[in-house]
Amino acid sequence: MRRSTIRLSFMMLVALWIASAMSASAQAPDFSKVEIKTTKIGNNFYTLEGQGGTIGALVGPDGVFLVDTQFAPLTDKLVAAIKQISDGRIRLVVNTHLHGDHTGGDENFAKLGAIVMARDELRAGLAKGNPPRPAGGLPMVTYRGPVTVHMNGEAVQLIPVPAAHTDGDTMVRFPVVDVLMTGDFFRSVGYPNIDRNNGGTLKGMVDGLNAVINAAGPNTKIIPGHGPVTDRVGVTAHRDMMMAIRDRVAGLVKQGKTVEEVTASQPAADYDTRVAGATPQTRDRFVGQLYAELKAGG
Fold first, then answer.
1. What CA–CA distance (Å, rounded) separates 10 from 15?
2. Which of 159, 160, 202, 229 could connect to 171 by a Cys-Cys bridge, CB 3.0–4.6 Å?
């Protein structure tokens, strides 16, 4: 009897392991099927979309300035796309935040001769990540305050956004083509994502959105980390939605509700039809993040 029980338990463990492995395999992206979409946004500014965060490319006689690099396996495809809109000399890269769908190709682009730039906090986060990023994949130039990069007729502004989506976010402004890139502290699809494990906070995210709104003009094209290009009106609506849901969750926290009770009450459900690409998963994740921050006194 005991031997049969042990054997059954072993077989169940094996079955669970196989199911887990198959699930992981099913979830792994097939980068070979990814196609790069290039869109001209301004005179010498383009976006590149493949898989992961949207890339910005400022091109011209001084070479190419990139915002983010997506996943490492996509580098060759991205380089090929960049050569279709420029002479291919990729000189500078700036990371908007540390997540791999925005920084995974850094090491590859560095090997091609690009200098990678990012916030001090971003470099530190990659260096101590799980697994740690190798030295060749870490930004070479780091900064804490604002930085201006003069290339291709632009005075590109790298504007730190403290403790927003993560603790190492940067907003990138191109004044001449009137473009702002936000990274993931603003997305035009799905609910917000406050990465508390990497230093993100609601206050920092709202402050970042306010900075975008204040910096944008009526015709400014705002390029989110994910989702369609939008404008100041779109960002304002996103910020207001965040604050409305925050107030609802705060009221429930004051009533002593548990995170399970707050999530079950669906305080954001009425926004599902107004938030493009909304899913119950991103909604409940955001509510849980708000709960954790408010419960901690944030």
1. 9
2. 159
Average of per-residue pLDDT across 240-262: 98
Over residues 61-75, the mean pLDDT reads: 98
In a domain, 218, yes or no: yes
**Which region, left, alpha or beta, applies to residue 116 given φ > 0 means left and ψ of -120 to 50 means alpha?**
beta
Examine residue 241 and state whether it is found in any structural domain, yes or no: no
State if pTM tops 0.85. Answer: yes
**At residue 222, what is the residue type?**
I
pLDDT at 218: 97
Structure tokens at 148: 């201006």
Strand partners, 183: 224
Answer yes or no: is 14 within a domain.
no
Give the C-alpha separation, 93 to 104, whole Å: 12
Q: What is the pLDDT of residues 154-171, one digit of tens each?
A: 999 999 999 999 999 999
Residue 53 CA from chain centroid, whole number: 6
Q: What is the pLDDT of residue 49?
A: 98
Residue 61 lies in a domain: yes
Token code pair at residue 34: 């990814």
Please give the structure tokens belonging to residue 284. 């409940």
**Any idea what the CATH number is for the domain that residue 150 is in?**
3.60.15.10
Domain tally, the chain: 1
